[in-house]
Amino acid sequence: MFVLLSNLEGSTVQKSPMTAQGLKRLEDELRHLKTEARPAVIRAIAEARSHGDLSENAEYDAARDRQSFIEGRVLELESLISTAEVIDPSTLSGNRVQFGATVELVDEETDKESTYQIVGLHEADIKERRISVSSPLAKALIGKDVGDSVSVPAPGGDRTYEILKVVYK
């Protein structure tokens, strides 16, 4: 789910939905990289340089690799943050599943219940029960109502779930 917005020059910018929590996590990571990780790797490079011959200096190579990773991640985070469209699920309501919903499901075959929140692509974390809006399960759920059954493609064959509850918090 992306939203296309036009900027002043007439070109479009692809916005990606995100919760405020997801945006905060990205901003915290960016702040950490800029204020702690970047200065630390600069110090590590300076220290490695002081050891002499750079052509056979594994510490220098490792520090440069780390610096490259940090700079790439900083650029990626800045881009993600600039294109984020923050959606506050607590302002939404109803029994229809949409972005930000916390959905309680039951597997119709096993009767096992599970709960997931549908979040943006870059804030998904299955351990925290947050699934990406672009995941097969979220795609199947979006637009459905409490009581509906959805079929989701899975490696072992399609799974069918019934939507028990939809909450926006």
UniProtKB/TrEMBL annotation:
For this UniProt entry, which residues form the secretion signal? none
Q: Which GO terms describe its molecular function?
A: translation elongation factor activity
Identify the keywords attached in UniProt to this record, alphabetized. Answer: DNA-binding, Elongation factor, Protein biosynthesis, Transcription, Transcription regulation
Q: Which Pfam families match?
A: GreA_GreB (PF01272), GreA_GreB_N (PF03449)
Q: Where is the Transcription elongation factor GreA/GreB N-terminal domain?
A: 17-86
Q: What does this protein do?
A: Necessary for efficient RNA polymerase transcription elongation past template-encoded arresting sites. The arresting sites in DNA have the property of trapping a certain fraction of elongating RNA polymerases that pass through, resulting in locked ternary complexes. Cleavage of the nascent transcript by cleavage factors such as GreA or GreB allows the resumption of elongation from the new 3'terminus. GreA releases sequences of 2 to 3 nucleotides.
UniProt cross-references to NCBIfam families, sorted A to Z: greA (TIGR01462), PRK00226.1-2 (NF001261), PRK00226.1-4 (NF001263), PRK00226.1-5 (NF001264)
Question: Which named protein is this?
Answer: Transcription elongation factor GreA
Q: Whose protein is this, by species?
A: Saccharibacter floricola DSM 15669
* Highest classification ranks of the organism: Bacteria, Pseudomonadati, Pseudomonadota, Alphaproteobacteria, Acetobacterales
- The protein's gene is named greA
